[in-house]
Please model this.
Amino acid sequence: MHHDIAGRAAELAVSVDATPRRVLDIGCGTGYLLRLLAARYPQAAELAGIDAAPSMIEAAHQAADDPRLRFTVGTAERLPYPDDAFDLVVSTTSFDHWADQLVGLRECARVLVPGGHLVLADQFSLLLVPTLLAGRRGKARTQRRAGRLLVAAGFEGLAWRNLYELIIKAVTATV
Ligand SMILES: C[S@@+](CC[C@H](N)C(=O)[O-])C[C@H]1O[C@@H](n2cnc3c(N)ncnc32)[C@H](O)[C@@H]1O
Model:
């Protein structure tokens, strides 16, 4: 399932930006999506992945098959990159885990160049509203909630797409 989502997210990323120089994947896991993007973006200078789990970053290092891939342990809420460092930021099925989603999105906006693109894929559905009353209270698990956070973080031009099954959706936005 994660590989299908990554494949579709890669297609979407290419459709919004065909020639980014620098790409960041937040919550990159084992780096599968970045390896796909490295193949799709031969002109890119750097494809960076960050993940909160050291074991994921270790696995990503082991699987890295391209010298432009760089992996770092860290969190969305505190990205260790300067302002305007990336043309494209992607993230698949990680956003729901971020401790502070608004802070994480503000970090995405900060590290993107003006006009840069975000591709954010995760579970967003009204079917998940009951979960907001229980353990996932406060999480942006609907398009409406996530959209509000994206706009508050400085994003515009939001466009939603169904990515996988009923609840995995992707939003693209620019800063
Ligand atoms: C379900 S996995 C998805 C991994 C990969 N993106 C994929 O689609 O296969 C969620 C990942 O998000 C990472 N994660 C959780 N909270 C994070 C945060 N605040 N900042 C960065 N990564 C985070 C986890 O360590 C985990 O590797």
